[in-house]
């Protein structure tokens, strides 16, 4: 059976960021498949993946890319599945370039855009899990437990470390 969530990224160098999405999904007991799919270097791979993603059984796509980050938008143009974009922090412009590339989609082709970097990768996974949880009561319970554990872990007072 195909994993419900695909994590795609433009380069091996994006994995340091995108593995946080994979780790978060694993903690929630949600299967995912991670692939390198570059809009620029492997456009045919992108077209084949995105056009076939729905038929393959994926429900949500998380797409991370940096710099001229066309991957989430191009993937969204090629599939009706929800696409969540993660702007990867770039060396030269610190990911602001990635953010602007992903967030400014023209009306008609949406990409749900998260924060730059690790926070965005984690939140993309949580958002994707929340979408799946709408029709999966067991996952909904696990997601609520994950959030409660996070809340319980916050100390009332700061301490010197
Ligand atoms: C983008 O170019 C990738 O998403 C990556 O963030 C960035 C740099 O890629 P590499 O040169 O590190 O492969 O397509």
UniProtKB/TrEMBL annotation:
Residues 3-154 form the PurE domain. It catalyses: 5-carboxyamino-1-(5-phospho-D-ribosyl)imidazole + H(+) = 5-amino-1-(5-phospho-D-ribosyl)imidazole-4-carboxylate. SMART domains: AIRC. GO terms for biological process: 'de novo' IMP biosynthetic process. Its EC number is 5.4.99.18. Pfam families: AIRC. GO terms for molecular function: 5-(carboxyamino)imidazole ribonucleotide mutase activity. Catalyzes the conversion of N5-carboxyaminoimidazole ribonucleotide (N5-CAIR) to 4-carboxy-5-aminoimidazole ribonucleotide (CAIR). Belongs to the AIR carboxylase family. Class I subfamily. This is N5-carboxyaminoimidazole ribonucleotide mutase. It comes from Bradyrhizobium neotropicale.
């Amino acid at each position: 059976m195909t994993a419900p969530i695909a994590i795609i990224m433009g380069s091996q160098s994006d994995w340091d960021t995108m593995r946080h999405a994979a780790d978060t999904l694993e903690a929630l007991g949600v299967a995912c498949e991670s692939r390198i799919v570059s809009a620029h270097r492997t456009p045919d791979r992108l077209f084949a993946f995105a056009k076939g993603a729905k038929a393959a059984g994926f429900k949500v796509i998380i797409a991370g890319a940096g710099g001229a980050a066309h991957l989430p938008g191009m993937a969204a143009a090629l599939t009706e599945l929800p696409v969540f974009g993660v702007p990867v922090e770039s060396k030269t412009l610190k990911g602001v370039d990635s953010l602007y590339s992903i967030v400014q989609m023209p009306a008609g082709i949406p990409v749900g855009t998260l924060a730059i970097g690790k926070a965005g990768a984690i939140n993309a996974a949580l958002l994707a899990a929340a979408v799946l949880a709408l029709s999966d009561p067991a996952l909904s319970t696990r997601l609520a437990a994950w959030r409660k554990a996070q809340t319980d872990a916050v100390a009332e007072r700061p301490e010197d470390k």
